[in-house]
Amino acid sequence: MSTTAPANRLREIAQRRLDALGVPTRPSQDGAFLEGELVGLVRNPFGGKPLERVRFVVEGHDRLRPVAPRALEGLPPVSFIDLQRPEPIFERLEKLLQRRYEAARAALAEMRRLRLEASLDGELCRAVGRLELTSLGHVIVEADERGVRAARVEPLMGSRAPAPLDLPVDLREHEHRVDLELFLYGPAEEALKAPVAAPAPGPQRPAPTGEGGPTLAQLVEKFGPDARVGPGLTLTRDLDVGGRQVRFLAIWDAKRGFVGRLTSGSGTVWEEPFPFDRLPRVEELAAAKLGVPAPPPPPSPFSLGPSAAVTPAMIAGQLEPVVGEVWVMSILVEAETGNEVRYVPVDIDGKPFGAPRTLGRADFLATFERAGSVGFRLPVRVLQVTSTHVTWVQLDPAREPVGHPKNGALGMFVNHFVPEAAAY
Fold it and tell me: What are the pLDDT digits (tens) for 201-224?
């Protein structure tokens, strides 16, 4: 027999305890949980303004999770049941924010190693990097204690709105900036193909703040094309995850953004407000909460269909890679100063792409092999080829594999690498 207290009893206990601390709360719009606001001061280790107001939701009977401002989004809940006054809540939030700061600084160092324009954002409380992709625009990379994500693509055409990307990135897997460019080019290109939703009248802000709201394309991407829409923008999906039938419910509130709930035959599995731009597909969320593998993503209803796949016509008759082949990218040395070499990769038309970068002479010679009397090149071995992507591993000048295998768009690969047999 279960000894777990009913949800309404837990909310009652939490409300009385917070009232005793002088922290008022109120039921959410649907009555499913408590929410409130802390007024005080949370120091900001990122060098931005201190946070004077913290909106939160209550979890269980003893913890609160911050949901605003954006600087605190995603922090784990903090306990209040053992407190006699509210001030320690701010101290606990500051400790969590300090962990975020340390993780962001470590990610910032990786971004700068890869020659990204990067800094710590005092308002968002995360590391933010900017990576140029030739002919596309810039990918904005954000990092905190939850990891590093390619957040969006800012296109070269100023009239086109930035496209959401939300792609996890392990910067440590990329030895050089060009590796990261190749990894992100395909996803960025696909993100920019999605139709741009017509803006609503008046100023718009990102959905996580609860003002402006998500676009139709974003809703379909996150919740799926078969989600049912109810009154007041209530989205419901019934899912089969790992053999279990579950239901995902999301309610849009103009002030708080989305409030999500995941239920199964045994009761509520997960329930809390969530920042829309951090929400994975609902299938992935349900699988994570149930501890089972996530199903593969379905084709996007906003894709261009079969024609969007890379075809021989799209790569202009160029040779396609074959598993086991060695392909090479040309490297142009721009300058040699002291013990450093300044260089830039070159595409198959002989045009430099991306920003120039610098390596110590020893590292440069250990990475790139000589090609002729003055040139250099980067060799890779092809490991896998599909209709849209290529997986390869970098080779050192002794032709030994270096680092982890990389994966990138086929079109991008054949425009920057050529078969070694054809290089001359």
Answer: 444 333 343 345 566 666 766 676
pTM of the model: 0.56
Q: Which amino acid is at 308?
A: A
Domain parsing of the chain, residue ranges: 7-101, 103-193, 218-290, 326-422
> How far apart, in whole angstroms, are the C-alpha atoms of residue 208 and residue 211?
8
